[in-house]
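User: quick one, sequence for these C-alpha cells?
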C-alpha cells in the first residue's frame, strides 16, 4: 500500500504535467479535479485578471502571448486524501508562453502579508522542477489593508532573494489592485 507521501508526490507530478501540456496548447489529460476548477483561462486575451473580495491582480498581455491562468488553491492543489488541509499555497498561477514559460504566483490576501509570502514560498517548494524550468518566476501579493514596511524584514528579504537569484524574478506587494504589463514584470519600484 502506498504511503500518503508517495500518493501526494504522484499527484504533484501529475499536476506538473497538466501545466506543461496546457501551456503547449494541448488538451490536459484526465484530471481528478474538474478542468473548470483548475483553469480559469487559456488564451491570448489582452488582459488576464483574478480577484477575490475586492483584491485584484491584472496582467496586461501587450505581446499577445498565450497565458494560462490556473486556480491553485482549490484547483491544482485541492484538499483531499492526498493533500493535507494545512498545506500553504498561493491563490493563482499565470503561465506565460515562451521558449521557456514565465510564471507568476499570485496571492490575494486580507492583511497578513507575512502569511502570503509563506504561501508563495510554499508553492515554489511544492513544484520545484516546474518552476526551475521557467525563464522567470514572479511573486505578486495584493492585500486589502495598507502594506507594512517590509524592506528589512528577514522573510521578505529571503523570498525576494530567492525569486531573484534562483528564478530570475521579483516580488511585488500592492494594496487592493496590482496591474502591470507583461513587458514590465521585471521592473520594481524603488
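Assistant:
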Amino acid at each position: 500500500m502506498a504511503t500518503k507521501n508517495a500518493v501526494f508526490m504522484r499527484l504533484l507530478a501529475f499536476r506538473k504535467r497538466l501545466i506543461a501540456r496546457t501551456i503547449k496548447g494541448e488538451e490536459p489529460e484526465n484530471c481528478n479535479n474538474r478542468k473548470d476548477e483548475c483553469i480559469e483561462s487559456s488564451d491570448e486575451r489582452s488582459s488576464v485578471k483574478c480577484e477575490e473580495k475586492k483584491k485584484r491582480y491584472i496582467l496586461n498581455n501587450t505581446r499577445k502571448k498565450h497565458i494560462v491562468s490556473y486556480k491553485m488553491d482549490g484547483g491544482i492543489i485541492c484538499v483531499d486524501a492526498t493533500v493535507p488541509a494545512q498545506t500553504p499555497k498561493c491563490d493563482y498561477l499565470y503561465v506565460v508562453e515562451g521558449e521557456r514559460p514565465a510564471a507568476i504566483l499570485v496571492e490575494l490576501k486580507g492583511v497578513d502579508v507575512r502569511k502570503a509570502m509563506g504561501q508563495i514560498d510554499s508553492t515554489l517548494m511544492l513544484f520545484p522542477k516546474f518552476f526551475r524550468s521557467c525563464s522567470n518566476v514572479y511573486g505578486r501579493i495584493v492585500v486589502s489593508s495598507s502594506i507594512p514596511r517590509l524592506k528589512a524584514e528577514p522573510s521578505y528579504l529571503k523570498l525576494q532573494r530567492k525569486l531573484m537569484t534562483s528564478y530570475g524574478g521579483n516580488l511585488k506587494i500592492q494594496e487592493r489592485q496590482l496591474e502591470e504589463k507583461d513587458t514590465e514584470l521585471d521592473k520594481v519600484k524603488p
